[in-house]
UniProtKB/TrEMBL annotation:
Domain Polymerase/histidinol phosphatase N-terminal residues, every copy: 91-166
Taxonomy, superkingdom: Bacteria
Biased composition (Basic and acidic residues): 10-19
Signal peptide segment: none
Database matches in PANTHER family: EXONUCLEASE, POLYMERASE_HISTIDINOL PHOSPHATASE N-TERMINAL DOMAIN-CONTAINING PROTEIN
Identification of the protein by name: PHP domain-containing protein
Annotated InterPro entries: PHP_dom (IPR004013), PHP_domain (IPR052018), Pol/His_phosphatase_N (IPR003141), Pol/histidinol_Pase-like (IPR016195), TAT_signal (IPR006311)
Length: 569
């Protein structure tokens, strides 16, 4: 069903002057000093209302004002249930089409499947490289524009999978507008590690990656594109995203570089033969190479309950970033190239190098169980709390960290609020910072809507346990390659003793005398093991996935992004 708003041209030339002022005021890539008096006044109003998120400067949570996220209105007429004042739109930021050298499907194939599986937004991210930069960026755009018109209740972003200089892959995408193609093409031609021969881990190549992020920030600042974001993809797969590189991306452009895949795509890759590829979930099957960070342990090259080691290890790399008080969010997505069990094949006469694409797929009638992917929305979902159904609202939600992720439809909804205990205040939601007086009592209110209906594998998932993870915020680290933090652990676990409806839990932090953060994790309880940093830190974490025999439907988890609590004297 349509929503009566065409998205192929978002240059804002048609908006009322007040709308433009608001859009500029909300754009945190523009410094306060560059705003007009009217724009600055609006930004201050948004800050007071908590509508700009928190921690989006390099200084982070400890260096700026904490923000309380307010409940706002939205257009809820598209069959997506509002929760906590937001329209929680499931999405996927990592999807490949016939314009990728290793994929097969048309844009419209992915969009129609994503829409059918309930996604409200998605990003087309064909592989960066010389052929894509020369041909593919231009050629895929008309297909994306056509898909936006054909399926108007799923937002379709254009992006690409960046070969990050000196590192792994990443999603780069922009808000639709007149210059989306030109901007992405210039970015790829100038900063892609494959195009520039800059894949090795040299200081020069690391600097090129930062220059690419600076280019995106400048494109937004100059209104060349309305907005742009970057997320690191499958960060532990090859061990080449070092801790100092991740910190460098985030600190260089914190409104552009916002996070990483907490769980990679390719989740069917671990299904045992002959019903699956018989590999590692996420195709995490590498060993250290010449450019790998030498400090990473052997376990980091595997997934844990389908999640990347950086995310799955309590007190590990993700927590070491959060303990600095700076935002770094996690997502989950399909990385869909070729779907497990599908009967498609590439069209005859395809010449990718000459044409920048494969011919439209044909259907050969033989199921391909050697593929490791699912359709977008079929298994992995990133739920973003948007203020309305629009491209900018989704990007604002992702940037603000109003995000939780799940596999296999483990739960249907999640509302989390940190608030002053016993005051009746609403507090703040995911990605936000709650400021309280020193010694004030704080609680974390959790409301989970259980699955209640079959997922796409045709069974109703059952949530067995919810874990609250808490860590101290200790500020910037002296060692930029640190990937553990000592004061983060599972502080409370709740058993879930029902399989339908809603469950609520309230975790009491007590009197808060130091900055802390909290995040959630939940599981179907079918596989568990002590965390890599020991049972005292994480007694029942996700178990390391068995290579060649890892049924993704029999090991389901959800994760939330954090909330910070910051006491003030």
């Amino acid at each position: 069903m349509g929503h009566g708003h065409h998205h192929h041209d978002h240059d804002h030339s048609h908006e009322r002057p007040g709308d433009t002022e608001a859009a500029v005021a909300r754009d945190l890539s523009v410094p306060d000093g560059e705003l007009s008096p009217g724009q600055l006044s609006r930004r201050r109003m948004f800050r007071r209302a908590g509508l700009l998120g928190a921690g989006l400067t390099a200084a982070g949570v400890l260096g700026g004002e904490g923000q309380a996220a307010a409940s706002t209105g939205f257009d809820g007429g598209r069959g997506r249930e509002p929760r906590d004042g937001y329209q929680w739109l499931a999405g996927d930021h990592h999807i490949h089409t016939q314009y990728s050298s290793d994929a097969v499907y048309r844009v419209i194939d992915h969009v129609r499947h994503a829409n059918a599986y309930g996604l409200g937004w998605m990003v087309i991210t064909d592989h960066g490289g010389a052929t894509h930069a020369k041909i593919g960026v231009d050629k895929v755009n008309p297909d994306i524009v056509a898909a936006r018109e054909a399926v108007q209740d799923t937002l379709v972003f254009q992006g690409l999978e960046w070969n990050i200089p000196a590192a792994e892959h990443g999603t780069v995408f922009v808000a639709p507008g007149r210059n989306e193609v030109a901007t992405l093409k210039e970015f790829e031609s100038s900063f892609d590690g494959s195009v520039k021969g800059a894949s090795s881990n040299t200081p020069q190549n690391e600097a090129l990656a930062i220059a690419g992020l600076n280019f995106l920030a400048e494109a937004v600042r100059k209104r060349r594109v309305p907005d742009a974001l970057f997320l690191a993809n499958h960060p532990s797969r090859k061990g080449i995203d070092s801790p100092h590189e991740i910190r460098g991306w985030r600190d260089a452009q914190p409104s552009i570089a916002i996070g990483m895949e907490g769980a990679p795509g390719h989740q069917a890759a671990g299904i045992a033969k002959p019903n699956g590829p018989g590999g590692g979930r996420g195709y995490y099957d590498s060993t250290p190479g010449a450019d790998s960070f030498p400090g990473y342990p052997a376990e980091s090259y595997k997934t844990f309950g389908g999640f990347d080691w950086m995310t799955a290890t309590v007190g590990g790399l993700w927590d070491s970033l959060l303990a600095e008080g700076k935002p770094w969010w996690i997502t989950a997505n399909s990385d869909s190239h070729w779907v497990h069990g599908d009967t498609s094949d590439r069209g005859p006469g395809s010449d990718f190098n000459a044409n920048g694409r494969y011919e439209d797929p044909i259907y050969k009638g033989v199921a391909n169980f050697g593929s490791g992917d699912f359709w977008p929305g079929f298994y992995s979902r990133t739920h973003a709390g948007a203020e309305d159904f629009s491209y900018r609202a989704v990007m604002d939600a992702l940037r603000a960290g109003r995000v939780w992720v799940d596999h296999g439809g483990l739960i249907s909804g999640l509302v989390v609020r940190a608030r002053a205990a016993g005051t009746g205040q609403r507090g703040v939601t995911l990605g936000g910072t709650l400021q309280v007086r020193q010694g004030a009592r704080v609680e974390l209110a959790i409301e989970i809507t259980l699955a209640g209906r079959p997922n796409w594998a045709q069974f109703v998932p059952t949530l067995a346990r919810v874990d609250v993870i808490q860590g101290d915020v200790t500020g910037a680290v002296s060692d930029k390659d640190a990937f553990t933090t000592p004061n983060t652990k599972v502080v409370q676990s709740y058993e879930v003793n029902k399989n339908s409806g809603t469950v609520t839990f309230t975790y009491q932090l007590g009197a808060v005398d130091r900055p802390v953060y909290l995040r959630l994790r939940g599981t179907d309880g079918k596989r568990a093991a002590p965390g890599l940093l020991g049972a005292a830190v994480d007694p029942n974490g996700p178990a390391i996935d068995v290579y060649g025999d890892a049924d993704p439907w029999n090991d389901l988890w959800f994760y939330s992004n954090p909330i910070w609590v910051l006491p003030r004297r």
